[in-house]
Design a protein that fits this description.
single chain; elongated; mainly alpha
Length: 85
């Protein structure tokens, strides 16, 4: 479980920074949803550390990968918008 802490924290920080930079409301909403998903994963991992919940490592890894891929798509869209300006 400890292996996820750093990745989750970095992903959360990235999402916060992107939300602050985004001028597109739909992108902000998507980033907020991804931040909420990341928060839920972090809580699940924390519960696993406390022994109150089991965590499927493979599922958690896949969830983080899926969120990361979505973040990448938002970043690409943000970059495209900047290029078009």
């Amino acid at each position: 479980e400890g292996t996820y802490d750093d990745s989750i924290d970095k992903l959360g920080t990235l999402l916060d920074n992107l939300r602050a930079q985004s001028k597109n409301n739909s992108q902000k909403l998507e980033l907020e949803a991804l931040a909420e998903e990341t928060k839920l994963i972090k809580e699940k991992v924390q519960h696993a550390k406390e022994g109150t919940e089991e965590v499927d490592d493979e599922q958690t890894r896949q969830e983080l990968q899926r969120i990361t891929e979505k973040v990448q798509k938002v970043v690409e869209a943000m970059e495209e918008e900047e290029i078009q300006k």
